[in-house]
């Protein structure tokens, strides 16, 4: 996607040395460790006030050279967003998204009962209902819970995170929060840290990766979670394991005793079908919105407002994906990366302010269509998903 201000960045080449990737510099390897105060501060998301931009430091611990004009830009935009947030009701801040999640729960009985039918149309309706509900709870619910955007209470936020991430999604809260909030958001498009490399499977060809591999997401998710449990405390690992087993077994039990499946294999096949219904757009969205955009070396990353405006892309609004994934993952991804603690509805509300401000300040505001990004990745799969991404050299904003 062409940037609005083409003079801001240019690729510097494809070779990425060990120090940039964090393999040769011990300070970089330790930068993302759990409990690090710098990444913990980033994990808290957006907080009102100028403090949003004061803590931007390099992963090695050395503060970046002060760039007052850039800090002033982020502070000014933050103040504009604060005014909107303060003038918004609880319904706008949290109620709309909670209602969407509540409606999804209320649709669950209809989905399981539709699967009892021997006729094709009601049965397929049941698959569609359960598939959409599953992704609404596991993608939208888990994403909002990981950012504590469902409630203003941190205690309740922890409860919702365990419910949506562990019980519904069969993953672990600690690792989900660490990898997504602290690393991906803290170092968006920084090589070796937040460059979305976890989504790359270079041993797969483009068609297998884009159209076949997503079907394995429901199976791979709990397997990856089990492997990651070795990195958390035993109490958290035990809690996660219990929640994962409970969530998967409840789904299986309901298919047998409510939907009337006669064999375990048919119930497991239906679980796979419903849990992978929107797996393709889930994988696609995660790569479309960052990979292929400017990437930065860890010791030369720009300040927050430039990092997010350069390295994040919005897709157009889509009724199904807006409901299932949330605005912050689709049409308001730029806004979400700038202000990650805001709910989906609030990201949508501040979108006109953010887009107008970035364009007014001659900063990139990346937007593209789903079909255009899909075609781009099919055409340039080797370059974007197999080879190391080029480091972007900043020009004109340092």
From TrEMBL:
<feature type="region of interest" description="Disordered">
    <location>
        <begin position="20"/>
        <end position="41"/>
    </location>
</feature>
<feature type="transmembrane region" description="Helical">
    <location>
        <begin position="120"/>
        <end position="137"/>
    </location>
</feature>
<keyword id="KW-1133">Transmembrane helix</keyword>
<dbReference type="InterPro" id="IPR005804">
    <property type="entry name" value="FA_desaturase_dom"/>
</dbReference>
<protein>
    <submittedName>
        <fullName>FADS6 desaturase</fullName>
    </submittedName>
</protein>
<feature type="transmembrane region" description="Helical">
    <location>
        <begin position="236"/>
        <end position="258"/>
    </location>
</feature>
<dbReference type="InterPro" id="IPR012171">
    <property type="entry name" value="Fatty_acid_desaturase"/>
</dbReference>
<feature type="domain" description="Fatty acid desaturase">
    <location>
        <begin position="123"/>
        <end position="367"/>
    </location>
</feature>
<dbReference type="GO" id="GO:0016717">
    <property type="term" value="F:oxidoreductase activity, acting on paired donors, with oxidation of a pair of donors resulting in the reduction of molecular oxygen to two molecules of water"/>
</dbReference>
<dbReference type="GO" id="GO:0006633">
    <property type="term" value="P:fatty acid biosynthetic process"/>
</dbReference>
<keyword id="KW-0444">Lipid biosynthesis</keyword>
<dbReference type="Pfam" id="PF00487">
    <property type="entry name" value="FA_desaturase"/>
</dbReference>
<keyword id="KW-0472">Membrane</keyword>
<keyword id="KW-0812">Transmembrane</keyword>
<keyword id="KW-0276">Fatty acid metabolism</keyword>
<feature type="transmembrane region" description="Helical">
    <location>
        <begin position="207"/>
        <end position="229"/>
    </location>
</feature>
<keyword id="KW-0443">Lipid metabolism</keyword>
<dbReference type="GO" id="GO:0016020">
    <property type="term" value="C:membrane"/>
</dbReference>
<feature type="transmembrane region" description="Helical">
    <location>
        <begin position="98"/>
        <end position="115"/>
    </location>
</feature>
<keyword id="KW-0275">Fatty acid biosynthesis</keyword>
């Amino acid at each position: 996607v062409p940037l609005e201000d083409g003079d801001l960045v240019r690729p510097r080449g494809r070779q990425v040395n060990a120090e940039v990737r964090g393999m040769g510099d011990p300070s970089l390897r330790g930068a993302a460790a759990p409990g690090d105060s710098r990444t913990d501060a980033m994990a808290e998301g957006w907080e009102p006030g100028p403090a949003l931009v004061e803590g931007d430091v390099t992963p090695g611990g050395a503060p970046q050279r002060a760039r007052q004009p850039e800090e002033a830009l982020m502070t000014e935009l933050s103040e504009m967003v604060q005014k909107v947030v303060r003038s918004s009701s609880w319904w706008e801040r949290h109620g709309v998204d909670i209602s969407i999640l509540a409606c999804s729960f209320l649709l669950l009985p209809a989905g399981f009962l539709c699967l009892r039918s021997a006729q094709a149309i009601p049965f397929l309706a049941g698959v569609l209902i359960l598939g959409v509900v599953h992704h609404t709870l596991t993608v939208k619910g888990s994403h909002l819970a990981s950012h504590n955007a469902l409630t203003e209470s941190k205690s309740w936020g922890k409860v919702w995170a365990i419910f949506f991430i562990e019980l519904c999604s069969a993953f672990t809260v600690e690792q989900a929060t660490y990898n997504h909030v602290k690393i991906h958001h803290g170092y968006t498009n920084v090589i070796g840290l937040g460059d979305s490399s976890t989504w790359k499977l270079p041993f797969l060809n483009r068609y297998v990766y884009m159209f076949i591999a997503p079907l394995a997401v429901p199976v791979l998710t709990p397997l990856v979670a089990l492997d990651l449990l070795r990195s958390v405390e035993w109490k958290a690992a035990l809690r996660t394991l219990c929640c994962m087993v409970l969530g998967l077994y409840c789904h299986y039990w309901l298919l047998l005793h409510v939907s009337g499946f006669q064999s375990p294999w048919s119930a497991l096949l239906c679980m796979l079908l419903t849990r992978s219904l929107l797996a393709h757009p889930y994988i696609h969205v995660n790569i479309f919105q960052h990979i292929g955009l400017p990437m930065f070396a860890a010791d030369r990353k720009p300040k927050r407002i430039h990092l997010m405006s350069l390295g994040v892309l919005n897709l157009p609004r889509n009724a199904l994906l807006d409901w299932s994934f949330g605005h912050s993952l689709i049409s308001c991804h730029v806004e979400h990366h700038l202000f990650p603690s805001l709910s989906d509805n609030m990201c949508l509300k501040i979108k006109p302010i953010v887009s107008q401000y970035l364009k007014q300040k001659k900063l990139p505001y990346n937007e593209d269509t789903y079909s255009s990004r899909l075609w781009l990745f099919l055409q340039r799969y080797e370059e974007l998903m197999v080879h190391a991404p080029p480091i972007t050299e900043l020009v004109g904003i340092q």
